[in-house]
Amino acid sequence: MSCTISLDAMGGAGAPEVVIEGAEIALRSYPDVRFLLFGDESKLRPLVARFPVLSRRATLQHTDEVVRDDEKPSVALRKCKGSSMRLAINAVKENQAQAVVSSGNTGALMAMSKIVLRTLPGINRPAIASLIPTIRGESLLLDMGANVECDAQDLFRFAVMGDAFIRAVLGKHQPTIGILNVGSEDMKGHEEVRAAARLLRETGLPLDFHGFVEGDDIGKGTVDVVVTDGFTGNVALKTAEGIAHMMTYHLKDSLKRSLASKLGYLLVKPALNHFKRKLDPRQHNGAMFLGLDGIAVKSHGSTDAVGFANAIGVAVELVTYDINRRITEEIRQSHAILEETVMAGERA
Amino acid sequence: MSCTISLDAMGGAGAPEVVIEGAEIALRSYPDVRFLLFGDESKLRPLVARFPVLSRRATLQHTDEVVRDDEKPSVALRKCKGSSMRLAINAVKENQAQAVVSSGNTGALMAMSKIVLRTLPGINRPAIASLIPTIRGESLLLDMGANVECDAQDLFRFAVMGDAFIRAVLGKHQPTIGILNVGSEDMKGHEEVRAAARLLRETGLPLDFHGFVEGDDIGKGTVDVVVTDGFTGNVALKTAEGIAHMMTYHLKDSLKRSLASKLGYLLVKPALNHFKRKLDPRQHNGAMFLGLDGIAVKSHGSTDAVGFANAIGVAVELVTYDINRRITEEIRQSHAILEETVMAGERA
After folding, report:
1. Is the N-terminal amide bond of B52 cis, ω within 30° of 0?
2. Least CA distance to A189: which residue of chain B?
3. I want to staple B99 with a disulfide (CB 3.0 to 4.6 A). Which of A226, A230, A300, B295 is the partner?
4. Which of residues 193-222 of A touch B (CB under 8 A)?
């Protein structure tokens, strides 16, 4: 796939080194991609020069303005119009690039992307979607925190968008979809999740709706797409991260307790490394802002070059799949059906 | 502490064996406790006879009625008035016992406990509170699912009740309290969590309010009491369980991959067992229905005798601490202060 990705070269803890090296790594899997790099030219030029492949496929655009990590989104929006983040987003708006990737300030990236790219027709609220590891592989969780309160129609649209993401990035033909709830029975939970489930059952779109899932279904990988509001999704993702960290901590601590276990540790180390790779957050890096009229991928702020390359890969797959055209089409189809459902409800 | 605990001897997957053996194990730590056992006498009598210590400290009360695990709470409430669960709860209401422990149907236990025991003065909504392991030890999470929607005053009361629980069961002098949110800054989250935080800051009760915490703070053990609504709490707890299960699965799978790692596994096995014990859900068994006028402890339905003994231990500690008298007193004090806050808000 020949496409151009614009990179906020100054965003994230390891920028610009991580961004430049990540772009070079991504070219091994996607040799036809071109990059627009936004950032401080005096820093970027010598870095890019170290990678002959990247040098031929990257264009630098200088700016010395950067969005700080602690900048409030509203302030960043007003004051950082010349920042590397803003210019990288503008490049998508102006069709110079097909997607933007940034490891910078999440709130600012969301606010700027919303203002510059706007939402897709029929979408009011973009959602942050992120892949997380499961027993069976990986699943997509959305919304991860863009919207603390969501109604049934929002949740329905998240399902449609998540379905398209899984088809695009994991290549699954018929992803299964679940709504996160406190039980699997129809009467469980609050009105918004119950109404969203009814919409998904009744729309007639070719979606494989599994029904309600519970928190433990995330790790089990029961469904490919886990739909929830941004409050619950943010808490669930961060809880998962915290528990994974706690378990690794206790595991390491336990392995240090005796001479035998220290010896044994040397023997099991390759196995533990395999275990670590399975759960490596870098392999699941690249959260997408779904629902915007333009592809914007958020890379984790503290990822390394391998993780950043993965986020670029997510962006390329989304461009290749033409995800936004497909989401727009499904939302358009479901709009008609949603209205019918609402009207039928009113007649009843 | 000399007290009497009533046991639903027929509740849970391993009943009645797990209940009887659990009671025997609990007597090793709490030799002065007495038990009222409700259930099928023909099954219970020979089981109890195997434990001479328990035989001297247990009284059997026969019933052949049982609440099934798939029974709807509303049906159980109407139809199971002679069940082992209902009679065990009644015993607390009638002052024959100071607490009830059951591994049976959670919804039915909550519904029956609410109807029979009623709530404490000043409490509208009881909450389910559960200890979970962290890096620093264990923390209490509430509400775990009794109330899918909670307002600021509910969250405030959960904080007061959770504080009392930690003092009672873990013996901490000044537990720290956090409200679960999507960020730590004051303006984050929805109105209910922000208003609850204001209440906790302004009430003047001797509570150590830390502020907002995020999902990953659960595993870190940042605070002793994590306050949230029942929807988010249920999802967070089950997400944590699912991720812990997934990690154990991947760890075992990785350790089976080579001869060296299988050999090494023999050497690290004691360390891994130590790791397993650290996270053993049996050690954290015993969720309490906080806010009821009577102590009701829910044991996990699939726990074993050691886990059930732990749930009995939680019940005994709560009785010893006289938790409900203390909660009532703090809620009474905070009622005055809450009203002042509300009135001050209206004047402003």
Report:
1. no
2. B148
3. B295
4. 214-220
